[in-house]
Write a structure and sequence with these properties.
DNA polymerase, domain 1; hpI Integrase, Chain A; two-stranded antiparallel sheet; globular; cell cycle; cytoplasm
Length: about 290
């Protein structure tokens, strides 16, 4: 059933990362249901969803945003069951979502010094691919799914235009990101001097490749970041934290909220505004000064 749901999502032109997220959430529900009732669910029942939500809150102690994402995934699965004639009614509604108070503190948790130390650690290890990717994430705010799906052909004119077109952004939206000298220099070094050394490079259309896959995957990126952070004795840094860093750093350097929203691909400018707030660390410092 999950495979058919995946096909259903693909017909709706959902992005690869969105499909992956939905499937993970549905598998979590199936696992919980099987452990609780000894069989797989054949349809969705409101009482079961209420119990699953309670389990996530009280046993797994997951935050409201994570729980709401899983409920949203189940709602989409509910729509699939109805459209497929397996179930007659939509039982998951917005009223079942948990209320979440908007965070005030900026979600940016890493500093410019952290990013510079990470970049230096990669530079000293000698991987031009990894160095180019981290520079791209830190100084354009790209989502990791967007960065990894960039075709090599999109880089033909970037040295003249200093612009990169993202054609498969969240919600299938296109946007232009602007490339600073750090990004351009590291991309040129990787494309010119290292990309061709990877086994899959000749047949791959993607910018970032590996020896095993024609497209570098996010699991490999996460492992790579963990390795560099441990080597540099840094706290763990994820691709999404680099996106947070870009938004906060860009605002500090004088870009307007509207400019950062446009570059980062935020559909709602209020998402960008939160980066103008003090960090959690600074909030705690202020509270301690009372």
């Amino acid at each position: 059933m999950i495979d058919k749901f995946k096909e259903y999502l693909m017909t709706q032109n959902k992005s690869h990362s969105t499909i992956e997220g939905y499937i993970r959430s549905i598998k979590d529900y199936f696992t919980w249901f099987s452990h609780s009732y000894g069989k797989e669910p054949t349809k969705l029942i409101k009482q079961n969803i209420d119990e699953f939500r309670s389990y996530l809150q009280t046993i797994k102690r997951q935050n409201a945003k994570t729980i709401n994402y899983k409920l949203s995934s189940l709602k989409k699965y509910n729509e699939f069951l109805v459209d497929s004639g397996i179930q007659n009614d939509i039982i998951i509604t917005d009223k079942m979502m948990l209320k979440v108070q908007q965070e005030y503190a900026s979600p940016a948790t890493i500093t410019e010094k952290d990013v510079n130390q990470l970049r230096q650690a990669i530079l000293e290890q000698g991987s031009k691919r990894d160095y180019a990717l981290i520079n791209l994430l830190a100084y354009t705010g790209l989502r990791i799914s967007e960065a990894l799906s960039i075709p090599l052909s999109e880089c033909n004119n970037i040295y003249q235009t200093k612009e990169l077109m993202i054609r498969n952004g969240k919600g299938n939206k296109q946007r232009t990101v602007y490339l600073n000298d750090k990004v351009l220099s590291s991309l040129k070094d990787y494309i010119t001097n290292e990309r061709s050394t990877y086994k899959t490079a000749l047949d791959s259309t993607f910018l970032f490749v590996s020896n095993k896959n024609s497209c570098l995957d996010r699991i490999t990126v996460n492992k790579m970041l963990d390795k560099y952070c441990k080597g540099a004795k840094l706290k763990s840094i994820t691709p999404h934290q680099l996106r947070h860093f870009f938004c906060s750093h860009a605002l500090e350097k004088g870009l307007t909220v509207a400019e950062v929203a446009n570059i980062a691909g935020h559909s709602n400018i209020h998402t960008t505004l939160i980066y103008t707030n003090p960090s959690r660390t600074k909030m705690i410092e202020k509270v301690n000064s009372l």
